[in-house]
Amino acid sequence: MAANYKEELVGVFGHPVAENPTCVMQNAAFAAAGLNWRYLTIEVRPEQLPAAINGLRGMNFRGINCTIPHKVAVMSLLDEARPDAAMIGAVNTVRVDGRGRLIGENTDGKGFLRGIREDAGMDPAGKSVVILGAGGASRAIAVELALAGVRQIRIANRSVERGQAMVGDLVNRTKVNAELVPLVGRYRVGKDVDILINATSIGLYPDVEARPEVQLEEARGNLLVADAIPNPPDTRLLQECRQRGFKTLNGLAMLVYQGAIGFEMWTGQKADEGAMKAALGKAFGI
Ligand code: NDP
């Protein structure tokens, strides 16, 4: 049999990128599938992004993830963005189609949605949702929840300007019933809320003692509380909500599923999510 030493390449562009753990789970999935693929963690400064994208074309990469600060800037460098990525206004996954064109996708919100459905066992259709934060993660989650048929989305954000811009885009692009609540002091979670989501960076490593200010006395008993933060997986918010008897979903679900969806877009094969979770768990020491 002739030897084949060629590796198919994918990876992530970010700045700074050193702490991004995605290579651990993607390389575990490639090994589990017996694929000779390699996921590279690549430092790309903002001014280098156009050259880096051309590099993908020149070296026949099979795809790339984009993380902070490239998710918006990359859009103008691609051949096409899929409709939901365009609605979100950001791309986290680039795949190469059959004609060699670079296609922008966003798997963040899709990964979150899969966690809600599969891990928390909830169908979001018809539900009332509060999302804390109006950054990239919040936008991706809100668009996919809107497309999944939620009844209402309230965005609670510290910066009113940023929150208003997000709600305006969301209503214009998805027609969902959405409103902004300025995040001042404690956010009171009312009886009508089915899902509370933290999509801020409050509580993200290394600021692990921080938690968003929420008041839960009036919340319904079957409230689902989800945190987008993957590190630490068990945030202060989730710990306290669990102690109060609420159901919780951590940010590792979103991280693994968005990666698994990306794996499937690149390889055309189902990802071994068990292998991905195990590899990440080892990396996070859990
Ligand atoms: P952005 O920087 O785009 O947005 C951050 C958001 O957090 C903004 O709404 C900001 O409010 C808010 N915020 C930050 N600090 C405070 C504070 N002290 N008080 C009130 N609000 C605050 O980040 P991303 O949207 O990209 O990421 C948000 C979170 O989602 C991060 O923790 C990230 O790790 C996580 N994430 C998880 C993923 C996963 O796969 N699990 C994927 C992507 C992100 P303001 O507008 O007022 O500044």
Give structural attributes.
binds NADPH dihydro-nicotinamide-adenine-dinucleotide phosphate; Rossmann fold; globular; 36% helix; 14 strands; 6-stranded parallel beta sheet; 286 residues; 6-stranded mixed beta sheet; alpha/beta; 2 domains; 9 helices; 21% strand
Overview of the molecule:
By secondary structure, the chain is α/β, with parallel strands linked by helices. It folds into two domains: 8-106 and 253-284, Rossmann fold, CATH 3.40.50; 109-249, 3-Layer(aba) Sandwich (Rossmann fold). Helix content is 36%, strand content 21%. It contains nine helices and 14 strands. It has helices at 22-33, 49-58, 83-88, 108-119, 136-147, 160-174, 236-243, 251-267, 273-283; strands spanning 8-14, 37-43, 63-66, 80-81, 93-96, 102-105, 128-132, 152-157, 178-182, 187-188, 195-198, 214-215, 224-227, 247-249. The strands form three sheets. It has a six-stranded mixed sheet, sandwiched between helices. A six-stranded parallel sheet has the order 9-8-7-11-13-14, sandwiched between helices. It has a two-stranded parallel sheet with strand order 10-12. The chain is globular. 43% of the residues are buried. The mean pLDDT is 96.
